Amino acid sequence: MEGGEEVKKEVNMSQLAGVQFLLSNEGKEVPLSSIEGKTTCLFFSAHWCRPCRNFTPNLVQIYTALRNTGKNIEIIFISLDRDDASFWDHFKGMPWLALPFDTGLRQKLCAHFGIEHIPALIPLSATPSSGVGFEEDAVKLADEYGEDAYPFSAQRRRELEAMDDARRKGGKLQELLGCKERDYVISADDIKIPIADLTGKTVGLYFGAHWCPPCHVFTKQLKEVYNELKILKPGSFEVIFISIDRNKGEFQASMSSMPWLAIPYSDTARQKLTRIFTVKGIPGLLILGLDGKVLKTDGRTAISTYGATAFPFTESRVSEVDEALRKEGDKLPRQVNDPRHRHVLELDMAKAYVCDECQKKGRYWVFSCKQCNFDLHPSCVLENKVDIIKICI
User: How far is CA 65 from the centre of its chain?
Assistant: First the structure.
């Protein structure tokens, strides 16, 4: 798309005029007439192209699911391979048809549709005599929506995006987290918890993966807050893990360290939620308020910076905590000389530390040495004022 406008082409089945037959992956000749009346897509791909090899299994799954549910769809593989052997090596894993490799029409089709990158999936009109506008490339649409993208048109994209928007803003947890076949989430030991049980709770949607080192760090922070809130405000906060793991083994490894719930790994709702909330990086934490609608708060920042103090993680509460901390800091000296340490200690802010005086955990304000690993709680400094040699304002 350019300038916010859809790029469309007038296309029809006449683009295949002159083709005597198509091929099955078994090498059988199939009459061109076999695709008449079907929703037909041209699939431009090549075996040497890694993105093509990655996308093809997804398209096979979509195609198979659509055919199994009675959808009248056909795909024609247009090979951009360099030789006949590579063409067949790539085509053998495809359940659809192909344009013969030795026809010059392959290059003409590339030029007609302006193919500049592959893979590319171009929908043709279902009726031979009619030209219908479509988005030039439906690969992204198919990747994002799977079989729901059928028939891969611009109108279908608008419909799907409107449905996503409704789920995102609707505040209905079942529509957001569940599907027709599933009205529950699961615990680490595979116990099914009804989605309805989340109603009236603040819910965090945690997007993460076992292969991601920053996720390991954030999981520990979130776990500490989660367990603290279970004691302080039982039943008020729940976390749902949305796995970005590469396989079920990694998902199970992730869940082994998590005390909260998850979307089942095999469920496409994981991809749906990643798409709906435009998740670009992990770890990520979205907060759903009591009405089931997503808050504007950056959940990851709120948790790692303020901990359970910021609950229920609304913008107003985070601002309130931030202002209280600022006022607390304004009352503290900027630097102190303390007889317990040879260097000047400076006032700083830390997400977590251990006080070298009382050996207790601390967060937020700390008197810290810039030259070595030495930290003191402000309370441990100020309650021993007689031992403070100098305070620099």
Answer: 23
